[in-house]
Design a protein that fits this description.
about 450 residues, alpha+beta, Creatine Kinase, Chain A, domain 2, 17 helices, about 45% helix
Amino acid sequence: MTHPPLQKVHLIEYLAAGCKPPSRWHIGTEHEQFLLKSDTLNRFPYEGKIGIRAVLEALQPYGWEPVYEQDKIIALKMPHQQASITLEPGGQLELSGAPLPTLHDTKAELDAYQAQVGSILKAMGGEKVPMGTDPLWPRDAVSWMPKGRYRLMHQYMPTKGKLGIDMMIRTCTVQVNLDFESEADMVTKMRIGMAFQPIATALFACSPFLEGKITGYQSYRAHIWQNTDPDRCGILPFVFEEGMGFERYVDYLLDVPMYFVYRHKNYNDATGQSFRDFMKGQLPALPGEYPSLKDWADQTTIAFPEVRLKRFLEMRGADSGPPQMLIALPTFWVGLLYDSIAQDEALQVIREWSIDQILILHAQTPRSGLATVIKNRTLQEVAQEVLAISARGLQRRARKEKDQDESQYLDPLIEIAKTGRTIATKMIEMFEETGSVENVVRGYIDCFLKTK
């Protein structure tokens, strides 16, 4: 099928259509977790009685409807709720939560989902383990999921960065999707988000191990992402420059090499090709064909900066972790970005940070975490100030349940910032006591997951 040629203005209008008044702002939380067999701690394969497909089938009585690629179940969706359960390339199970008005609603959604998955896994002899990286298994011990998009990425990733395959199959993250009112509001939120992503990386650090060994990193997941693909990952300096707006981000996306074009239920290989050529009808993968807005929507999903712009903003810089951390992540960002006073206070924190300093902070934080220094202050000190800003923003939002506002969900982060002891720090201490990463994983399951 040939589509009428798209103009650049159509691409800009597509992103600008995301603008919403504050009365329509919502919170969408996404998180990933590994599924491990209880006895061996092996990753779940796709097939088998103890497998990913069996988990997806067992979730359907809760109201989830299957999504197929060819004859394989590769996702679930919840009718009328804009929620879905999807598979990352190595079988990491991801909840893409519905857009919800309050963090109390978000917590209820997370709790219900985790209860469903937990019940199914208990019957199977499995464990759900949300953490930043797979701490035990090498690449060849992980089963790939039967999705065409991932097959193309699997082939392309090694041509760009040394750890792209690890990103696909050995990492898990938690992120929040947030709305914006206008182009100016989008720019402000994106700048605060980009500058503060290292704070989130440090506070949520939960990935100090790989292949049964200590790595020397607080967040090895963040290190993996920094070595995935320079064309589409990391901090975007232009976000802080004069003239930042929807058009500038469109220019960036147009220069991100493509992965695929989806046609007739198939992923056509367009890896490394140019969306600009596609708009001219000169894409080698589909010569003479022009893109649709759906193709442009797909293009917005194959860039992975620390803050991603679609028709909303995605805050992407945190390791997955225990339940209290999964709700803390959206809480952190909502407090900073959904209150105008908090936005102004956040901008004051970063007003003297140069882009070079932010880039250095981003590069150093995966290893040194809260001990990283910017402008003669540790990230631990900055985090305490930023968390106080977020808490005040949440208190002004005054979305209460049982007389408590949303700031209650910041408590785990406030404790981490006060003590400097992250989940990763505690895991390293467990390793020093036991000498075994396997023992750490079992302790993490018992101490951080089952008791919460």
